[in-house]
Amino acid sequence: MKNIMVLPGDGIGPEIVNESIKILDFVSSRYNLKITYEYGDIGGIAIDKYGIPLKDETLEKCKNSSAVLLGAVGGPKWDSTVPEKPRPEDALLRVRKELGLFANLRPIKIYKPLISSSTLKEEVIDGVDILFLRELTGGIYFGDRKRLSDEKGEYAYDTEKYYKYEIERIAKLGFKIARSRGKKVTSVDKANILESSRLWRETVKKIHEDYEDVQLNHMYVDNTSMQLIRNPKQFDVILTSNMFGDILSDETAMISGSIGLLPSASLREDSLGMYEPIHGSAPDISGQGKANPIAQILSLAMLFRYSLNLASQADMIEKAVNTVLEKGFRTADINTGENKLVSTTEMGDLILNEIKALG
Ligand code: NAD
């Protein structure tokens, strides 16, 4: 029996999660998968109900689940500059940290029917299929930082610190995933300057000895940011540290045209993972039936692939999304005017119907 913890969150979170749940219900009963799920509160809604963005009890349930499916958190209601006030986003960092989810995966694909919504030329992006693998629990975002003063005035520092074991485990995952895709890993660093990057490069090279069927190349981060725009088709799996991945994966996300299309997974060594769209809670369109549920539905597909080891069901969901887009159905964020404009629930139903037709 597999149990999924569902955390819809705030803003459009509950609306788009509903569409994923319709698909989960159908696929689970159609293939007799014995999947149960339970809802929990996270983010602003939890602050309103309990005064904190994540209850220990909810966190425990996440730890004991097979996977976590998350919508999005946050919104102007909970924005505050007062440091001691609880923030919805604190809950996300806590789940990632307490569950030890050290690897963030962001697949970035170009959907042919949407190719014109990218700001890049069609011939540059046609066929792009990149998997970003970003280290998520180490590096400068977690390193020592301080603000101090000396005789020259006020100063501040942050520290990029990586243990070898942190690099080893993300590199292993990168090579394993590359084996199931294009068999190529580009490891990003700044080894010409940074000592932490030199350890990164050395360690990745060493791990590669066990994965020689996968091609490995090393690229400096500044060059990578240029190559992603110049010729993104050269990449398969991009392996990065926490900060480099944060910056480069947002750059790459824009190649695809809309933030409403991109899913993500945060994983660790066993199969437990958290799956969520890369976008936020979109308070500007919440409650209006305008949200695109595709990123959320593709996050469910990743959950099938990585936590439940059900690749054929994941393929089916991804194929259904592509077919609905090919047929010209669009939510407002990806509508160019010549298409059939649909609401959040209509988009969810269309994808569900395609899945029914495939299954
Ligand atoms: P956002 O991603 O919520 O929205 C940016 C823009 O993209 C908005 O115009 C929005 O309408 C649009 N958009 C986003 N998702 C969409 C979808 N599925 N369909 C159609 N349009 C979509 O980013 P923001 O406005 O900077 O942040 C809003 C709130 O979300 C903030 O409180 C922020 O802290 C939070 N946030 C949460 C997460 C998360 O939960 N992982 C991530 C980013 C931001």
Report on this model:
By secondary structure, the chain is an alpha/beta fold. It folds into two domains: 1-102 and 286-359, 3-Layer(aba) Sandwich (Isopropylmalate Dehydrogenase); 119-256, Isopropylmalate Dehydrogenase, CATH 3.40.718. It is built from twelve helices and 14 strands. Strands 2-1-3-12-11-4-5-10-8-9 form a ten-stranded mixed β-sheet, sandwiched between helices. Helix 7 links the parallel strand 8 and strand 9 (215-220). Helix 1 crosses helix 10, helix 6 (164-179) packs across helix 7 (195-208) and helix 11 (311-326) packs across helix 12 (344-358). The protein is globular. Residues 12, 72-75, 89, 92, 259-260, 276, 279-285, 291-292, 295, 333 line the site of nicotinamide-adenine-dinucleotide.
In summary, what is this structure?
This protein is of the alpha/beta class. It is built from 12 helices and 14 strands. Helix 11 (311-326) crosses helix 12.
Secondary-structure arrangement, i.e. CATH architecture of the largest domain: 3-Layer(aba) Sandwich
Q: What structural category do the secondary elements indicate?
A: alpha/beta
From the alpha-carbon coordinates, what is the Rg to the nearest angstrom?
21 Å
Percentage of residues in helical conformation: 40-55%
List low-confidence stretches: none
Helix count from the secondary structure assignment: 12
Q: Give me the side-by-side strand order of the main sheet.
A: 2-1-3-12-11-4-5-10-8-9
Approximate strand percentage: 15-25%
Q: CATH homologous superfamily of the largest domain?
A: Isopropylmalate Dehydrogenase
Give the SSE order as H and E letters: EHEHHEHEHEEEHEHEHEHEEHHEEH
Specify the overall morphology. Answer: globular
Bound compounds: nicotinamide-adenine-dinucleotide
DSSP E strands, number: 14
Mean pLDDT: 95
Main sheet makeup: 10 strands, mixed
Q: Cα distance, first to last residue?
A: 22 Å
CATH class category name of the largest domain: Alpha Beta
What is the third-level CATH name, the topology of the largest domain? Isopropylmalate Dehydrogenase
Count of separate structural domains: 2
